[in-house]
Design goal:
392 residues, alpha/beta, Rossmann fold, Dihydrodipicolinate Reductase, domain 2, 2 domains, 9-stranded mixed sheet, 7-stranded parallel sheet, 14 helices, 35% helix, globular, binds NADP nicotinamide-adenine-dinucleotide phosphate
Length: 392
C-alpha cells in the first residue's frame, strides 16, 4: 500500500522498523535512514524482510529533501531527536510528503520544549494539502488518545487529568536512561509545571511527589510531578479541563546519581572549553552512559503508563483510570528492545498506519487528541499495547 521513510536508528527507530515490517499490507516498502548508517544496517539485519538503509543528516534540509525525492515515500516517520523536527518538517513541505513524530521541537541551546514552533507550520501544511501528526509515541501520544477516548465514552465533561508514567523495570546498571540520555536529562531537570484553572503553576524540579498504587503487580511507588508536552496540547484542545498534571516514577538510585551529576556540572548544556575544544558537558555525559538501545537484554520488569480522569457523567462525579502495562522482556523477545522504546515505537507505527490507510486524514498540523480515538485504541490492542480501564 505505501512506502515509508523512517529517520533515526536508535532505540525507538528499531521498534518502529520492526513493527512496520510486521505489517506488510500497509507498509509495503521501508527505508530506514539515520546519521550513522551502520546502525540502520544492524536493525535491517534483524528483520527478514528487505529494509533499505541510507545515511542522512536530518538537520540538512537540501540533503534530506533530495533523499525524500529519491525514495518517494508517502510518509516520513521522524524518530531522530526533537532538534530535527523543524528541518524534517521543512523537507516534507518541500517535497510534498506527510510527516509524523513522537516528541515536540526543542532548540538545542535551551532546555525547553513547546508545540509553538510546530503549530506555526499549520498554514503551510494546510496550503500544501499535507498532514503532520505530532507526538505519536506513548506520552505524548497514547496518553492524548486515552484522554480523547475517555472524553467520548465515559464523561460529559473532564475536570481533572493526571497522566502517570511508571517504569518499574530494572536494567541492572548503576545509572542509565531508557531513551536518549541528553533529551531525558534535559526533561527531568526542568522545573515542574502543571495547569490549574486557566494558569500554569511552576514548582521546583521533582519537588512535588506522592504515592500511587500501580496495577499489574507493580504496587505502590512514589510519583513525581513534572512538566510534559502533552499537557500543552490537551488543555488547548480540551479547554474544559481545569487541572492537568503529569507524574513519573524514578528509582532512588536514579535520583541519587542525577543529583550528583547536576551538582558537579555534568548536566550543563552550555559549551565549556576543554583543552581548547568546546564541549557540552551533557553531551559528553551521554557519550559515557549506556546506549538505551543496549539495555534490552538486561531490563526486567514492567512499565505502566496511563491517565486518571475525573469529571462528570449525567450529573454525577466519576473517576476513571485507563492504562497499559508492558513487560520489558516480552518486548525484547519480540523486537530486541526494552519496553520504553517499545511503548514509543508501537504508537508511532499505529499513527503511521492510521494516516496511510486514510483512517486519520486531515490537512495541517494535528495533535493526537484531535483525531478519532476509537480506531487507534482498537489498533493498540492488536499491535502489542493492550489497555485496561477501571472506575476508581
Ligand atoms: N512520545 C514518547 O512516548 C517518547 C518516549 C521516548 C522517546 N521519545 C522520542 O523518540 C525519539 C528517539 O528516541 P531514542 O531513545 O530512540 O533516541 P536514540 O536512541 O538516541 O536515537 C536517536 C537516533 O537519531 C539519530 N540522529 C540524531 N541526530 C540525527 C540527525 N541530525 N540526522 C539523522 N539522524 C540523527 C541518532 O543517530 P546516531 O546513532 O548517529 O547518534 C540515533 O540513531 C526522541 O525524539 C525521543 O524524545 C518519545
Amino acid at each position: 500500500m505505501a512506502k515509508v521513510l523512517i529517520i533515526g536508528a536508535g532505540g525507538v527507530g528499531q521498534v518502529v522498523t520492526h513493527k512496520c515490517a510486521q505489517n506488510p499490507d500497509v507498509f509495503t516498502e521501508i527505508v530506514l535512514a539515520s546519521r550513522t548508517e551502520d546502525k540502520c544496517r544492524r536493525i535491517a539485519a534483524q528483520i527478514d524482510r528487505p529494509i533499505k538503509t541510507a545515511q542522512i543528516d536530518a538537520a540538512n534540509v537540501p540533503k534530506l529533501a533530495a533523499l525524500i525525492e529519491h525514495e518517494k515515500p508517502q510518509l516520513v516517520i521522524n524518530v531522530a531527536l526533537p532538534y530535527q523536527d523543524l528541518t524534517i518538517m521543512d523537507a516534507c513541505l518541500e517535497t510534498g510528503v506527510d510527516y509524523l513524530d513522537t516528541a515536540n521541537y526543542e532548540p538545542p541551546e535551551h532546555a525547553t520544549f513547546s508545540y509553538s514552533w510546530q503549530w506555526e507550520y499549520q498554514d503551510r501544511f494546510r496550503e500544501r494539502g499535507l498532514m503532520a501528526l505530532l507526538g505519536s509515541g506513548f506520552d505524548p501520544g497514547v496518553t492524548n488518545v486515552f484522554t480523547a477516548y475517555a472524553r467520548r465514552h465515559h464523561f460529559d465533561t473532564i475536570e481533572e487529568l493526571d497522566i502517570i508514567d511508571c517504569n518499574a523495570g530494572d536494567h541492572g546498571k548503576p545509572f542509565a536512561t531508557n531513551f536518549n540520555p541528553e533529551i531525558n536529562i534535559r526533561e527531568v531537570t526542568q522545573k515542574g509545571r502543571y495547569y490549574d484553572s486557566g494558569q500554569w503553576v511552576e514548582t521546583g524540579p521533582l519537588e512535588v511527589s506522592k504515592d500511587f498504587d500501580f496495577p499489574g503487580g507493580i504496587g505502590p511507588r512514589k510519583i513525581y510531578l513534572m512538566y510534559h508536552e502533552e499537557l500543552e496540547s490537551l488543555v488547548k484542545h480540551m479547554p474544559e479541563i481545569c487541572r492537568a498534571r503529569f507524574w513519573m516514577t524514578f528509582s532512588d538510585n536514579y535520583l541519587k546519581h542525577l543529583e550528583v551529576l547536576q551538582n558537579v556540572g555534568m548536566t550543563r548544556i552550555d559549551p565549556i572549553d576543554y583543552h581548547g575544544v568546546k564541549i557540552v558537558p551533557l553531551q559528553f555525559l551521554q557519550a559515557v552512559l549506556p546506549d538505551p538501545a543496549s539495555l534490552g537484554p538486561h531490563t526486567k520488569g514492567k512499565t505502566c503508563i496511563g491517565c486518571v480522569l475525573q469529571g462528570t457523567r449525567d450529573g454525577r462525579h466519576r473517576k476513571y483510570y485507563v492504562y497499559n502495562i508492558c513487560d520489558h522482556q516480552q518486548a525484547y523477545q519480540e523486537v530486541k528492545s526494552q519496553a520504553v522504546s517499545y511503548t514509543t515505537g508501537v504508537p508511532a507505527m499505529v499513527g503511521a498506519m492510521m494516516m496511510l490507510t486514510g483512517t486519520w486524514r486531515g490537512e495541517g498540523v494535528f495533535n493526537m487528541e484531535q483525531l478519532d480515538p476509537d480506531p487507534f485504541m482498537e489498533a493498540l490492542n492488536k499491535h502489542g499495547l493492550p489497555w485496561h480501564e477501571t472506575f476508581l
